[in-house]
Amino acid sequence: MLKKLVLTGAAGRLGSRLRAPLSALCETLVSTDIVESIEGLASNETYVAADLADLAAMTQLLKDADMVVHFGAIGDEAPWEQIHSANIMGAYNVWEAAYQNGVRRVVYASSIHAVGMHPKSECIGTDAPHRPDTFYGLAKCFAEDLGSLYWDKRGIEAVCMRIYSCAEVANPRAVGSWLSYDDLIQLVTRAIDTPVTGFAVVYGISDNDRAPVDNSKAQFLGYRPKDNAEQFAEKIFAEHPPLDPQNPADMCHGGPFATVELGNSGVARLGLKD
User: Fold this and answer.
1) Is residue 160 part of a domain?
2) How far apart are CA 4 and CA 143, in angstroms?
3) Is residue 274 in some structural domain?
4) Which one of 19, 71, 129, 141 has the fewest beta carbons within 10 angstroms of its own beta carbon?
5) Is residue 181 annotated as a catalytic residue, yes or no?
6) Does the residue 201 lie in any domain?
7) Cβ(22)–Cβ(188) under 8 Å?
8) 58-109: per-residue pLDDT in tens?
């Protein structure tokens, strides 16, 4: 069991689902976000309000930590200045604070949007070249490369999880790209308890029959997803018009993020249900 685990983005949609399972993996869980407080703290959990853009705050937060699970960021496309502060400088500050404190591993919530402009007709692997679809995706590319650099030069392990569609299956894209909440928890747990990871990239996706990515090179993590979105396929396809092979929003891994103007929300076009 880890002595101290830090979770950033603890008040977010996905981070909030990780708090309880992560508290079971460590003696002390320190959850952090920019909100003033959060409710329902576990008996071994404390909350610290802190800004990712503040290196000193991150350095203090990660003191004596074994690992950090970094889910804090703007979770959507946004103007460059906002992405640069929270997602790019925030990532640098987390890795630098990890280095300053001798933290062993960063478990990072990357995104499919780091490779979002690849067509889904190409079943891409974890070694696919970066091809971001937005400033948001570009920031994920930066953080992945940052993790690689800090592993090569400073020996900090990193598991970068390219999360796909972690929400209720509500559109045809999600029939292939779904990541269930249970599989998310399993993936993060494996990223923490695998003895040796070095620098690794893994897709955050469930065991979908129509999955458009190849996760085989990440099997050493022991991640074996249990859920399959095929159970929703018939209903979802009947409720939505056919996809357009000439529309990048239908044909690219990034979905609507592939067509939004830079700086404009992509999440708003996903029709997420939670």
Assistant:
1) yes
2) 23
3) no
4) 129
5) no
6) yes
7) yes
8) 999 999 999 999 999 999 999 999 999 999 999 999 999 999 999 999 999 9
